[in-house]
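Dear colleagues,

As part of the handover before I leave the project, I'm documenting each prediction I ran so the next person doesn't have to rerun anything. This entry is a single chain, and its sequence is reproduced below.
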Amino acid sequence: MPEQPFEPDRAIAGTGMGGAMDLATSEAETLEKTPGGPEGTGPQEKPRSLWSDAWRDLRRNPVFIISALVILFLIVISLWPSLIASGNPLKCDLAKAQEGSQPGHPFGYDGQGCDVYTRTVYGTRTSVTVGVLATLGVALFGSVLGGLAGFFGGIWDSILSRLTDIFFAIPVVLGGLVLLSVVTSNTVWPVIGFMVLLGWPQISRIARGSVITAKQNDYVQAARALGASNSRLLLRHITPNAVAPVIVVATIALGTYISLEATLSYLGVGLKPPTVSWGIDISSASQYIRNAPHMLLWPAGALAITVLAFIMLGDAVRDALDPKLR
């Protein structure tokens, strides 16, 4: 028999549905291997999450970089103050009381003859420790209470709302004067406990509102319809999307707690000697402000810089995590 001429169209048509699928698959693979995509628009970029976008914005924010460097320096000297201060903050010489700057003692001496520079450096440890631990305690305690009340609602939400109203009505400084005046401990724990006791309502309300907003989203309703348990909904779906406002408020509040510790120590109900604290040094130097202002300026300046650094960091984090500012 004579050979039939080869016809491409007929050959393709004869391949049937399986052949058409193979051709479509081959074409798709070819398009995927093409660097410019199907229309030469370039490779598709993966969508970024809120946290990756926030980190990208923070790295470009000079306010965040400056405040982060200052806070990193404060943390380093809090952990290892002997790196930049070799003296003993409790070693004093009354013969040098109120003397000004001298070689090896750039900040001069206080009313007891103690080196102001050494006490200022070692006071960083106390202030940063109190601020960080108080912020962690407030954030954890307030977030748990507020998150559970916002998720379950009902009577628990009503009870929490009334409790927060009661604690909001207590003046912080007045409450510290009353509660800490009966404490005789020289450690930082009573002050930290007081800050947690009166600081959790603010974080609790923030967490409650965030959880109420997050649990109404479609992905949470879909997970609930698929049979997800309450614990899974809270840990996997709601918490990651509701924690951003809590982080922002806690970061800003950290500087406030450092300032509050100094205020209570200045009033004599916070930390007590021989603990080295900026508030204690400011209180001791206030009566010598005319004759020896250096005793007051250095610890007060260190306190102001520290509080400002944490507030600036909180503002930068807030701007990065707020979708309305994008």
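Confidence is low (pLDDT under 50) at residues 6-40. The chain has one domain: 51-325.

All the best with the project,
I.
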